[in-house]
């Protein structure tokens, strides 16, 4: 461009020089003849259409300057947007990790867990009955719906490494395990069929993190030895990073505590493979063929199971075995999907409110820029130009809000992860990765445009004539009042819905806290696992008895006992039984546990009738049983249970009648076992034999739990220094762990409701303040005409209350309809709980009055002399 | 002579430029000179308004621009009429003739 004009100037100058002018003169004349270079340049560029980029740059600079001058305003808008964008980002990262994880297992929607439950076992969840080995072999051989099928058995192992022992999660897997999951090893190879041959089972595959820990990531780890549970294995392969299947959250009812680190061959003997008893400890996982649906596969499996049913031992259990499949991606607590959707819904509301506030702030500000915009319009800025500039401003604010939001999201995410209840799958993998950041960018753009479009449209509508006539006072923006008010009403309605939901959840949680568990929360529990070195029952008895005796006699201890399964634990002791004098049904099952005599005392469970177990050597004397009140009520209704007989076997198994006969010696209070929300189920307690390999010790003491734990560890070390306790918790902590997910849900919803509430209040405050400022002249007139201060204040507060009441009304109607979505999470309150639905409006109205007081006082203090003169 | 230069009616500059480059490609200054020459110096063409028009014509695709070495051995931007431009020139010439004839007839009345 410049070169072209330069050339022109040169030629023109030459012409003048040839005509006789001196060079200086010639050049000057040429320049005059051409005209302003800058102007020409601009006109050319406009003609070419490169104006856009230049305008953009100019807009950005102008916006930055203008926002910088109104720093307070800019900060408030940025913070508001940051709050909305940050919360959404944090929740989105949780949701992508939980609901849409980048699972490395091929297409995870084609994977299914297989179980073989029995229709008669009504108390046992269908997904808890793992297939018998023989059933698995037959199902695998006879079905055509699957491209791969595998068996694996999770377990805990003691890893000996550099003279130290650590407990790790591991699994015995068959040769199809890794191919079913479609995960190739990072180094080496995986378990193959030759590794399951007898006498050749020393192969082990290790995880990436274990490889880093033990071998510092050296490739020469292959072939190195590894000691598990005292046996030597050889490393044959290393899995890629973050492969730890099965995680605790991947499988139900299993022993996995955390993430699996080692995989060894699952080698079943011929006898084991033919076992068709009451299930195995091995999970079955299968991958559907591409053209087969889940329903079809399930139907085929059931057909096969019908053929296999007669092969089961009819004397022990009845027929009724069937096949059950469960998608890979669901877990114990059911899908986490409803919870995630609830969170996403709540946080979208927060974003909408933040957006509304930002829009309101921008609208308010544009109204006060009458003068500036009028001048620009007078100087030739077209409507589009002004709109572009306003949009650029809101975009700048939005981007700043987005950046701040990312920072806030990081903080929020860490806070939320600390609340991790531990049973939401893959929650701990949430991070601010690329997918999440892309999401942030898109909502930032959407929010900026949404917040800025209306101010841009309305403020660019300038009536020049009015503007010039009134000397720069009128002709520009105004009349947004109604829109801004309706935004506030919408915000209040949204807040009402959120607060109602949070209120219901809070009340449910509090109700749940008051539920009597049936045992003492301060009782300390700890787990003891005796290693394989104690392979003689006599050895185990000795240790066990010594341990319990010494703990019992420790200072401050009121009672000590042991049990095989703690209440609220991961394991349930369910078994078949029948009761003397009761119309027993085939296959009836009951919950229960095996305990020592002083277990009930240690747990603070009262003995209602009779007594607890005697201290005799349990293997010699007639077996005793203790039942709880629920059991007594159900199976001994109207009779005295003491002295009656109970058998822990099937009614028609005559041979077992004497062997498994138990005499009821006592009735104890009810203990909740599974969930706080569920009332106590009937339980049958048997004596715990003291040659257990593992058990939970429970201690009730006058001393604080920490001291008791320390003392007991010392006792254990005196008996055998290589042993240690795990899972040392008070019963209160045990129960608390079981309500972790509910706590998570309640806390997060409460946090977001509070955010939304604060934002809405700030928005309301801003609106009222602005309205007061606008109506100063009117206030001045009123006061001059004799209105009292109180009167003026009441008017202002009434304006706020009117808005909020309208919002309340709309919100309550919405809440009444929406809270039923929470119905499954509520406890002790209905979806239309009156307490909540009265508290929320009361709270809102009170805070509204408080928020309006400051602007109200300002309005009342208006000096009519000043305002009237100003007008 | 300079005082008697006529002001160019709006919009006709485009037509003149298209005509000027119809015979051969010219650079900006040459176009300006030619217009002055041919009109016997009667037209007041603001030299500055030449270039925006040229750029507009280029954006519309009626002329094509190319850098080349000029007659005084320096680089200059040459403008050449395109096929579309030729068609546009014809259209505009016809329109111009019609307009001036109509105006002539009105002025000749009375």
Describe the overall structure.
The complex is a heterodimer of chains A (871) and B (110). By secondary structure, chain A is an alpha+beta fold. Chain A has 5 domains: 2-49; 55-101 and 339-479, no CATH class; 112-310 and 317-327, no CATH class; 480-515 and 740-871, no CATH class; 524-738, no CATH class. In chain A, 50% of the residues lie in helices and 15% in strands. In chain A, the strands form 3 sheets. In chain A, strands 13, 14, 15, 16, 17, 18, 19 and 20 form an 8-stranded mixed β-sheet that branches. A 6-stranded mixed β-barrel of chain A has the order 2-3-8-5-7-6. The longest helix of chain A is centred in the middle third of the chain and has 36 residues, at 383-418. The radius of gyration of chain A is 38 Å and the shape is elongated. Chain B has one domain: Winged helix-like DNA-binding domain superfamily/Winged helix DNA-binding domain (Arc Repressor Mutant, subunit A). In chain B, strand 4 (63-69) and strand 5 form a beta hairpin. Chain B is globular. Chains A and B meet through helix 1 and helix 3 of A and helix 2, helix 3 and strand 5 of B.
